[in-house]
Design goal:
It is a single chain. This protein is α/β, with parallel strands linked by helices. Helices cover 37% and strands 15% of the residues. It has a seven-stranded mixed sheet, sandwiched between helices. Helix 2 packs antiparallel against helix 9. The protein is globular and about 60 Å long. The structure holds pyridoxal-5'-phosphate. Pyridoxal-5'-phosphate binds next to helix 4.
């Protein structure tokens, strides 16, 4: 832990972390990959917006002008956080809806014989929209395989050809915690003039993102995974967004990111996104990453001593987030999640929509795995309590 990292002060900023379990100890929200807890600044910003400035955009009166200013300001913050252009920031309800929306605009760019690259490491939100696009257009899918032993993509199977039109890949896996280097995907796509689409949902609270530096055409993420409200973000090259033709009502703007936002956005959520990004900016992604690395090492060291527990995914602390898919001998994942839940430790069980990874790992019929997901507001004590609860199952 770095000296600038004051965990107690950080935890005080999250009202939900003050909740206690039946034994009087704080509950452990280790369900972070399914949604993080919300920093108080976010709750305040959303409430303030609704109390003082609630209006639709582009009006002649002050609350509408304040809403316009809010949207513009938060687009700028998103642009800084994701290394993208403010003019290419589209707000939506969640990543999945935005990805389907984006995928539909590619219908007239693909045809029979064209190809889409998908990976076996992705959440289904970065798979199903492309399978449907392939079905609509007659394109075929080229899979990048997941190595079940390492929890990493087998880059030998990343193949593109002259008919590859799109390469979709994750920045990190919500199931195994694997962090993915975009470089090989972007390079392969570029050699054949294909578009790249990156699912940055799981990466966003853990890994610094920079769409420009990484050379990615479009990426999507969800603020509710980085301490903000339920919302989605699509960030793309503004020229690409201008070239595509999203469904829209006739009077809606014909230019800019508003053209992509069907109907009225949740401005209170946008206010919350701004506050979440302000919080992250104060703390710094490097500080977050260095604290999380400590948690990762501690969990991996501890769990390796448990004969009855298996961690699926990268065994090493580098190149991964503190998200762990675990199975426990003689206990179904659901049973484990229930037992931990009764102790005030909240974890997911199942496949968490990461259907392909769970299939490759052979875990689908077994009920998936228990997913234990930490973020920077967890401490060593949380890791140790989770490890003790797993040890008790032996
Ligand atoms: C890696 C990943 N991609 C996509 C999604 C879907 O995000 P949303 O709920 O914003 O549609 C999730 C949600 O869990 C996720 O973890």
């Amino acid at each position: 832990m770095t000296s600038s990292f004051d965990l107690a002060a950080i935890r005080k900023r999250f009202p939900a972390l003050q909740r206690t379990a039946v034994d009087g100890r704080p509950v452990i929200h280790a369900d972070a990959p399914g949604g993080t807890q919300v920093v108080a600044d976010v709750i305040d910003a959303m409430s303030t917006y609704l109390r003082t400035s609630n209006a639709n955009t582009h009006g002649t009166f002050v609350t509408s002008q304040e809403t316009d200013a809010l949207v513009a300001r938060v687009r700028g913050q998103v642009a800084a956080f994701l290394g993208t252009d403010a003019e290419g920031v589209v707000f939506g309800p969640n990543m999945t809806t935005l990805t389907w929306h984006f995928a539909r605009t590619l219908d007239d760019r693909l045809g029979p014989g064209d190809e889409i690259v998908c990976t076996q490491l992705d959440h289904d939100a970065n798979v199903s929209p492309w399978l449907a696009l392939a079905e609509r257009t007659g394109a075929t899918i080229r899979w990048v395989f997941l190595d079940p032993d390492t929890g990493r993509l087998d880059l030998e199977t990343l193949e593109v050809g002259p008919r590859t039109r799109l390469v979709a890949f994750p920045r990190a896996s919500n199931a195994l915690g694997t962090v993915v280097d975009p470089e090989p995907f972007v390079t392969a796509a570029r050699t054949v003039g294909a578009l790249t689409f990156c699912d940055a949902v799981h990466a966003a609270p853990h890994v610094p993102l920079d769409r420009h530096a990484l050379g990615i055409d479009a990426l999507a993420c969800s603020p509710y995974k980085f301490f903000g409200p339920h919302a989605g973000l699509l960030c793309a090259d503004p020229d690409l967004l201008a070239d595509l033709r999203p469904d829209k009502v006739r009077p809606a703007p014909d230019t800019g990111p508003d053209r992509w936002q069907t109907g009225t956005a949740s401005f209170e959520a946008i206010a919350g996104v701004g506050a979440a990004l302000g919080y992250i900016d104060d703390l710094g992604m490097e500080t977050i990453a260095s604290h999380e690395a400590t948690l990762t090492r501690r969990f991996l060291d501890g769990v390796s001593a448990l004969d009855h527990a298996v961690v699926h995914g990268p065994a090493e602390a580098g190149g991964r987030t503190p998200t762990f898919a675990v199975t426990i001998r003689d206990h179904s994942p659901e049973q484990v999640a229930k037992i931990l839940g009764e102790k005030g430790i909240f974890v997911w069980s199942g496949h968490y929509y990461a259907v392909e990874p769970m299939r490759v790992l052979g875990l689908l019929d077994w009920g998936g795995a228990v997913r234990i997901g930490f973020v920077h507001y967890h401490g060593n004590e949380d890791v140790d309590r989770v490890l003790q609860a797993l040890a008790d199952l032996g």
